[in-house]
Write a structure and sequence with these properties.
- 82% of the residues lie in helices and 0% in strands.
- By secondary structure, the chain is mainly α.
- The chain folds into two domains: 1-57, no CATH class; 79-157, Alpha Horseshoe (Serine Threonine Protein Phosphatase 5, Tetratricopeptide repeat).
- α3 runs antiparallel to α4, α4 (60-72) runs antiparallel to α5 and α6 packs parallel to α8.
- The protein starts with a helix and ends with a helix.
Length: 157
């Protein structure tokens, strides 16, 4: 928790003294730090991601990062609300589309994930996220269909 307080203090101090850093940039920096520390300190990462939203509630990237941290923490339903807000603010945000679709896949919401994949492919045709998302979606659909066939076979026996 001390790292969070120190980071926020330094960010705010820099903002006040220089006037050169925008709230959006502070929000992005806090979000990026939340992503960096997630693997070693999940609780602080969640707190940092929430602080990024306080710094700039209109930052679509901060909403996507907060959603992604919740998704990684297997809080898929709550994460969904963060991705929706992110994409309301910026419907073409690569991270919001990619992480939001991955969250949809975790919730077996394949149509929603496919819609996000289509938007991502059209807006970012050369980016790796669209390729990785297509692979992830195809794999999960195949697993889902395989499970459906296995269940049907057991019911037929």
């Amino acid at each position: 928790m001390n790292i969070i307080k120190l980071y926020l203090f330094l960010s705010f101090f820099t903002f006040i003294l220089t006037g050169q850093t925008s709230l959006n940039q502070i929000s992005n920096d806090i979000s990026n730090n939340a992503l960096l520390i997630y693997e070693t300190n999940k609780e602080d990462a969640i707190l940092l991601s929430r602080q990024a939203l306080v710094a700039d509630p209109s930052n679509a990237y901060a909403w996507a990062v907060a959603g992604n941290i919740l998704r990684k923490n297997k809080e898929f339903e709550e994460a969904e609300n963060f991705f929706k807000k992110s994409l309301e603010l910026n419907p073409l945000l690569k991270e919001g589309l990619y992480w939001g679709a991955e969250n949809n896949i975790s919730l077996d919401q394949f149509d929603e994930a496919s819609q996000k994949l289509k938007i991502l492919t059209n807006s970012c045709s050369g980016c790796n996220e669209s390729v990785m998302l297509k692979l992830s979606l195809d794999k999960k659909k195949a697993q889902h269909n395989s499970n459906d066939v296995s269940t049907k076979d057991k019911l037929d026996e």
